[in-house]
Amino acid sequence: MSTPDLEARSLVKRFGAYTAVDTLSFSVARGSFFSILGPSGCGKTTLLRMIAGFIAPDEGDILIGGNSMADVAPNRRPVNMVFQQLALFPMMSVGENVAFGLARRGVARAERVKKSAEMLERVGLGGAGHKAVDELSGGQRQRVAIARSLVLEPTLLLLDEPLGALDLKLREHMKIELKQLQAAFGTTFVYITHDQSEALVLSDHVGVMNKGRFEQLGTPQELYYSPATPFVAGFVGSNNKIAGRAKSVQGGIVELESAEGWSIHAQAHGAIAAGAAVEAFVRPEVASLGRTSSELPAGHPQYAATVESLLFDGANSAVLVREQKSRFEFRIALPQTGRFADLKVGEALQFGFDPARAVCFPVAGSPSA
Ligand SMILES: Nc1ncnc2c1ncn2[C@@H]1O[C@H](COP(=O)(O)OP(=O)(O)OP(=O)(O)O)[C@@H](O)[C@H]1O
Ligand SMILES: [Mg+2]
Hints:
- The chain is an alpha+beta fold.
- Helices cover about 25% and strands about 35% of the residues.
- It has helices spanning about 45-50, 95-105, 110-120, 140-150, 170-185, 195-200, 220-225, 230-235, and strands spanning about 5-15, 20-30, 35, 60-65, 65-70, 80, 155-160, 190-195, 205-210, 215-220, 240-250, 255, 265-270, 275-280, 285-290, 300-310, 320-325, 330-335, 350-355, 360.
- The strands form four sheets. The chain has a six-stranded mixed β-sheet with strand order 6-7-8-3-9-10, with helices on both faces. It has a five-stranded mixed beta barrel with strand order 11-12-13-20-14.
- It is globular and about 75 Å long.
């Protein structure tokens, strides 16, 4: 295996008594798109700032291209950072912005102009070099910020929520552009976001961060289909969460009973004994819907429900149903056949799901877990 571009070894960063990054170890393969996904305050920016060298870890080490960065100043590290607030220089032209880092490195003017023009070409802004920054759209400015970093040919490009300031439509568009840029340049990207859909779409690997640690590190598919912890199941993609007690465990399938008396079956993840406090997660697209029992796949438990509300969102439309007995509100993705296009609020339905595709975790700290 080749040397990873980035390796973190037992990194710790404390602010007073508070541990912002807690004994974190991971590595990022050369040329890959790696995302760090987590809620606000979990330590993402702190981690990135340690990689860039703006702050020093209290413990542990960072290796870039196999070399320890312990005594290497930020401007000597083979990394560049793109911030949420782009900080382009408004008094410089677009081309001068891109050439800025080269000038600081002492690259001759003719070479700077050439490289800056080439880079603008590659990010789809060929010929825009003479423009003023405020003549560009938000998305174009974002591309200039990335061009300004990539022109320095860093080993690692660190991006801290670079799409956060853009409106939704532009963000969707830039998401695709970023992925294409990364593939074209082959530079290793370390990308921070709290938006799970960005992380899933863009990344080869994602570290899901919570309270200074990674709860899981895996491919987007692994996180989505095999979440390792309840936090990951709840944070990545949409999920129905049902809490209760394990009534029985048989052949790896838990029968969970909620406080409201709803019994469901789900695949056990981890050691679960009868009586333990548990929580199960069922994806909206795992459940099927029928107007009668016979419309549902045979062999799985079925539940009676009424339609609570319709959530129309084109191909991502869903329905919220209320399970009859427990009044539990459950989200089900609507099939794209249009078979349920005429559903009405209050309508009676049946639904069910394959227990093997639902996951059940013991609740941490519960006495019998
Ligand atoms: N310089 C500092 N001094 C003291 N506490 C800090 C400092 N920098 C960050 N923290 C704290 O460390 C924790 C992690 O902060 P960090 O900025 O890394 O979070 P984040 O995951 O980037 O969040 P967001 O998504 O909101 O940007 C927070 O509780 C924050 O208040
Ligand atoms: Mg941050």
